[in-house]
Amino acid sequence: MRATSVVVDWNGGALTLACLASLERLSAPPGVAHGILVVDNGSRAGAADALRASYPDVQIARLPANAGFAGGANHGLRTAFDAGAEWVLLVNNDVEVDPDLLAELLAAAAAGPRIGIVAPTVLVHGTTDTVWPSAGTRRWATLAPRDTTADPPSAAPYDVAWANACCVLIRRAMIEAIGGFDARFAVYYEDHDLALRARARGWRIVHAPAARAWHRVAGSTGEGSPRQRYLKARSSVYFFAKHGTGVRRAWMVPYRAASAARAVASALYRGRLAEAAATLRGLRDGLAELAAEGLEPRTALAAPPRAIEGDEHAAGAGSDAEAPPGVGPALPRSAREVAAWLRGVEVLEDGIDGQMLIAARADLEKYAWLHGRSAQLSLAMLARHVALPADRPLRVLELGAAPYFFSALVHRAFGAELTAVSVEAGSWPGEPARRPRGTVRVALPSGAGAAARGRAEGAGTDRLAIDVRVFNIEKDPFPLPDDAFDVVLCMEVLEHLGYSPSHMLAESHRVLAPGGLMFITVPNFINLKRTVNMLLNVPTEFPYSGYGIYGRHQREFAPREVAALLEACHYRVAELATANVWPTFRGSALKGLGNAVLNGLLRLPVPWLAAKREYILCAARAEGTPVAAYPAWLYEHRHMYPAPPNGIPAVFD
After folding, report:
1. Closest Cα to residue 58, out of 42, 41, 34?
2. Annotated domain spans of the chain
3. Among 93, 321, 483, 497, which is least packed by CB within 10 angstroms?
4. What stretches of 388-510 adopt beta strand conformation (E)?
């Protein structure tokens, strides 16, 4: 059996080195192989090198930006599990452990196959008897935790309702059954959420009193600091909205409002204005994000990174921390920031359609306004799953890339090497491409806010050349080699394919390196706004455009259909989400008010409603061999669909 200790590190320095020193002293029971994995969660340049110099045998998974504790832990869990670990000892970098800790925790876990989490007794660092609250029971009505580790009811392992993730042993089978940490929390409350989900699915959480660890409390955020207050307040909004459902909600809202008011009043009474302000900002931002995104959880584990540098795995995730060398600026945090940046992008040379994109400035301004939120959500999901190679740029293929704005965003975020696929304006089925290959040159703004200053100031300070191939992705063989890309993007393209999405998925699988990422966005066919339009007898379909064979939506998909088609074509879905992405007030004010009402309805924590949002985002990993699957639920007269080229078989299920 294999157990892996996973440490999530963000600029921990000496704290992380002390943690690793204690983990190296762990004594594994007979028959248990123990290894150590550090998830470098977007630390400053050189931090991983310092760890490697001190501990050359420790595996390091580098994330390009800070994914929060939950996102970093998920990457560590997936990497460890895919390397064969049955158990992960998840340890904060500000924790040091007793040499017998792993043996004690595994002995407690052996008491039953449904034990999913085992927690030790956690002591305040530098003491021998000062217990830090880390596991216990929970008040049903308010979900407030009560610690039992300071005075355990038994010297033997016993069941608890929650366990702090600063040091816990986690069973692989449980994570595979319920998913990982919800990355919406980033830090704080993610462990309480995991505990509630685990117990709801019949998994046990156990405290092993004899196991010992020592915690430098809030070593990363600072105990009681404004930063900690902000992060706790922000995460608390999502936690209590997510779990304070049903009859609990009747008193949960006033209880939490009173609790927040008490925290702010206490900080003000003690003269700590920064702490009070940080709490209010955290509550404000948490409520704003909840209103924008609803309660859709993000518990999928990112697939393991592909690129290997010795024993180091380069991984992807993140939001706003300093990026390692060779990676573009931090990811934008809002749809407004994305739209502002896009408005500063200029097409300088269009080697496919001549002056079309250069002259279509009004259309491109509309594109930036319309797609700001969808692009921001897409970048955020990509960041949770993209693996950054250690020794070369990320290789990205974007299908249907015109107007190349999202390609520019991907280059900015990940420093990617880009190849694009497009069609010529005015082309129709069966027409050969007049220019089978060309280059599009784009001017990029210098930063997220550059476009807001206006194009008159010459915001474009960087030049990006995109290699563009012209062919029909529904029928033509992709003129690209096997295993050539780390990521294939299919952004609002699937709905335009009238012939065969399976052909496109099979060829994309072929050109993806093993474990590569397929990322798809597509309008949701069963969205509630379309249903309302149909009832009102108003147009519901996308209007015709002049852009050749892809000029109108041909067939849209429901969320489960996207997942089913990908799985049939040998992809493993890593994350699938729905969202409302289009500007609320488009067209008439009356329609805008109607959209606002429907948006509010769709934010309610009801799964049926969540599936009715207007947009689908899906990240999936290529697995096994490429196949063009033609499932019966999608294809009629399936014998008429030929096998794709390059020796890929057709599968008729």
Report:
1. 34
2. 362-450+467-626
3. 483
4. 395-399, 417-422, 437-445, 460-470, 485-491
- How does residue 146 score in pLDDT terms, banded at 50, 70 and 90? very high
DSSP one-letter code for 543 = P
HSE toward the beta carbon, residue 329, CA cutoff 13 A? 15
Averaging pLDDT over each range in 49-53, 490-494, 579-583, which range is the top one?
A: 490-494
Identify whether the C-beta of residue 29 lies closer than 8 Å to the C-beta of residue 5.
no
The DSSP bridge partners found for residue 462 are: 444
> Half-sphere exposure of 407 toward its Cβ, with a 13 Å CA cutoff?
29
CA–CA gap between residue 635 and residue 640 (Å, rounded): 10
Give first-to-last CA distance, the chain, whole Å.
Answer: 38
Distance CA 368, CA 124 (A): 51
Give the model confidence (pLDDT) of 22-76 as tens digits: 999 999 899 999 999 999 887 877 777 888 888 888 998 888 778 888 888 999 9
**pTM higher than 0.70, yes or no?**
no
Query: What mean pLDDT value characterizes the chain?
Result: 83
Q: Could you give the CA distance from residue 128 to residue 123 in angstroms, rounded to a whole number?
A: 7
CA distances from 244 to 239, 256, 273 (A): 8, 10, 30
Give the SS3 label for residue 474.
coil
User: Positive or negative, the Cα torsion across 412, 414, 417, 422?
Assistant: negative
Give the residue from 339, 406, 399, 419 showing the smallest Cα distance to 379. Answer: 406
pLDDT of residue 500: 84
**42 C-beta neighbours (distance < 10 Å), count:** 28
C-alpha 546/C-alpha 133 separation (Å) is 64
Q: Does domain 362-450+467-626 have CATH number 3.40.50.150?
A: yes
